[in-house]
Amino acid sequence: MSVATGWVKDFQHRYKSQLESALYFWSYLRRNTLSVIGILVIFVFILVAAFGPYFAPYNPVKGETSDRLQGPSAEHWFGTDQLGRDIFSRVIHGARVSLRIAMIVAVIAGTVGTVVGVTSGYFGALVDDLLMRVTDMFFAFPKLVLAMAVAAALGPDLENVIFAIAIASWPVYARLARGEALAVREEDYIEAIRALGAGRMRILFLHVLPMCITPIIIQVTLDMGFIILTAAGLGFIGFGAQPPTPEWGIMIAEGRNFITSQWWLSTFPGLAILVTVLGFNLLGDGLRDVLDPRLTR
Amino acid sequence: MAEQMFDTVSSPILEVRDLFVNFYTYRGVVRALNGVNLTIGRGEIVGLVGETGCGKSVTARSVLRLIRYPGKIEGGQILFEGQDLLALSEREMREFRGRQISMIMQEPKVSLNPAFTIGAQIAESIAIHDYKPLDDAQTEAIEILRTVRIADPEQVAHQYPHELSGGMAQRAMLAMMLAPRPKLLIADEPTSALDVTIQAQILNLMTELVEQIEASILLITHDLGVVAETCDKVAVMYAGNVVEYGTTEEVLTNPAHPYTRGLLRALPNLARQGPLYTIRGSVPDLVDPPAGCRFHPRCEYAMSECAVERPDLLTVKQGHFAACVLYEEGRDGIPDAAHDELPANVWANPDASATVGEQS
Predict the structure, then answer these.
(1) Nearest to A80 by CA among B4, B219, A91, A133
(2) Measured between CB atoms, which of A14, A195, A210 is closest to B97?
(3) In which residue ranges of chain B is pLDDT below 70?
(4) How far apart are CA B157 and CA B95, in angstroms?
(5) Is B251 in a helix, a strand, or coil?
(6) Using a CB-CB distance cutoff of 8 angstroms, which residues of chain B are in contact with residue A210?
(7) Alpha helices (runs of H) in B149-257, residue ranges in sequence order
(8) What is the model's pLDDT at position B3?
């Protein structure tokens, strides 16, 4: 137990300054109305994803065929689809699917990118050349095309979509972390800790990495919208999650055939994507404004 | 020969022999160290003086093997208690860093990690070598902060480097570097970035603490006043060579090498009228240094042989060495009359802080 609390304390004082700068950040961010709206939208999205399924009025995958293709009503707020499933319930469950994809991708791509970038930047020389040329190879493909190719190669499945998007997104974080690490490794405090006999791994992960993490977190936030959009896109073209998963992209794809007569099938999941991605992008723009010294004050 | 100088110290803690370091830059190969010889005895404080760019810091970093790309140690030996550090693997070398030899740097505030508290950093310096629970190390850190005479160490332990003054930060740095109880402390201009009033405090504290743990100090400075006040021995560097080495008193009152003499003559002196003496010429470009003795183009005693071969450190008298052909057997050295030109000696008046090669 003492090991665990020691670790927590360690974490607390290692990352205290990051927490403090986050608070400072917020004091700037909240002056920007649009980014506050973005934050609210994201907040609602997360709440819906976390708790919505418990309150969803109907089962998202099982419908009453007798109720098929009903328009929006008091009973079915967003109407029902061709199999009689409640679209409102499906959109709510879809939030959870999207959030899950976005979060796992962010964690995988963020971690892989940061570790690769920091390693590359800190060691420099041959390691740097090697890792950065690999990164360049990934940069040579458009992100969406790469994600599509990987998803297609692995076969349509939710886990594979996550993997595919992560593969397409990590190089950005690697570049970013490398740049930071290049600057940090020249700092006197790194030399000081080397003079004390710290090993490479200690320096890399306990001293260089914490200094590089802030821009990565911001970049990940900026990319959330893209991740959700890509996941929906892959779902739409059939490379992603498979029916009957309540995934927004699939829902739009399935509603295509009815778009002229039963508009609600595609419209509501479409709106869900629009609002969520807009929320992330508004927050992203706000963050960029706060971070870019040329634009602020 | 160079070997002679090592006989004077019974069992030195550190011997640097014929150290060559090059930096491979786009401009060409910078021959930063050109056969440096240096000895530090147990418990001794050895000053390393010289102007900017003469290789003082490179020497210090070489001892810890902290020279990074594009720099490379090309030859020589660094013997720490008889063990050649250059022969060790990186992993073995790590055992020497901190635990045996540690280094404090010029700018205390940028030498402390801005992201962590002072306490955490000192605790880490302990934890690197002794695998202790972090809480124990923290308690120990507070004790160590107390020994460097920081008032209210409990509070300071929870502060960040930016919250400290320069003097406080240097004290914290001292605490961090002395926590593993090294046998040799390298102090690279520890007081240059500090307020004059704080300098003496830090120097006194440093010498006192180092005495307590029976360690030695290699004190890099360009301040001859500091040398006169603190150091037992002094080594004078010029363009990548130690040109003179001896006890502080001997070197400062009886400088043997023409460069050291020039330095001392160039000190401002209230008692003397007229323009300040300067050494003619300027510091050589180390990409293309002069052959032979690197000082010969500027030396008023230069002879034809000076341009041919690099002189070894030769005995001037017992415990006093100069790398100058004037001290070869059968030669008389610099005529005694020339000593009269020296200003009132620095040794006698350490408060008259004197600075070499850099603005004070």
Answers:
(1) A91
(2) A195
(3) 1-10, 272, 335-360
(4) 26
(5) helix
(6) 115
(7) 153-157, 166-178, 196-212, 224-230, 248-253
(8) 46
Which of A9, A191, A197 lies closest to B94 in CB terms?
Answer: A197
User: Which H helix or E strand runs over A33?
Assistant: helix A33-55
The tens digit of pLDDT for each residue in B64-83 reads: 998 887 888 998 999 999 88
Residue of chain A minimizing CA distance to B174? A192
Q: Taking a C-beta distance cutoff of 8 angstroms, is the pair B76, B16 a contact?
A: yes
Which ipTM did the prediction report?
0.80
Torsion of CA B348, B352, B357, B360, to 10 degrees: 160
d(CA B32, CA B291): 14
- For the purposes of burial, counting CB atoms within 10 Å of the CB of A192, is it exposed (0-12), middle (13-18) or buried (19 or more)? buried
Q: Is residue A297 scored above 60 in pLDDT?
A: no
Could you report the per-residue pLDDT of A184-195, keeping only the tens digit for each?
988 889 988 988
On whether the CB atoms of residues B242 and B292 are closer than 8 A, the answer is no
The strands making up B83-84's β-sheet, listed across from edge to edge, are: B28-40, B14-25, B71-80, B83-84
Distances (CA, A) of A186 to A194, A206, A261: 12, 16, 64
Alpha-carbon distance B338 to B320, whole Å?
18
Helix locations, B239-356, DSSP H: 248-253, 258-265
Q: Which two tokens stand for residue A23?
A: 């608070």
The helix/strand count (H/E) of chain A reads as 11, 0
Rounded Cα distance between A97 and A247, Å, is 6
A6 versus A65: which is more confidently predicted?
A65
Q: What is the pLDDT of residue A2?
A: 55
Structure confidence at residue A10 (pLDDT): 66
Strands of the sheet with B233-238, listed across from one edge = B101-104, B184-188, B216-221, B45-49, B233-238, B241-247, B320-322, B314-317
Amino acid at B87: A
A238 C-beta neighbours (distance < 10 Å), count: 15
Q: What is the pLDDT of residue B13?
A: 92
- Is B111 in the A-facing interface, judged by CB distances under 8 Å? yes
Of B94, B103, B177, the CB nearest to A199: B94
C-beta neighbour count of B82 within 10 angstroms: 9
pTM of the model: 0.77
Lowest mean pLDDT among A200-214, A265-279, B282-296, B334-348: B334-348
Determine how many CB atoms are found less than 10 A away from the CB of residue A262. 19
Best residue in B105, B112, B116, B189 to probe A by mutation, most A CBs within 10 Å?
B116
Q: What is the structure's pLDDT at B85? A: 92
Q: Among positive and negative, which fits the CA dihedral B261, B233, B289, B222?
A: negative
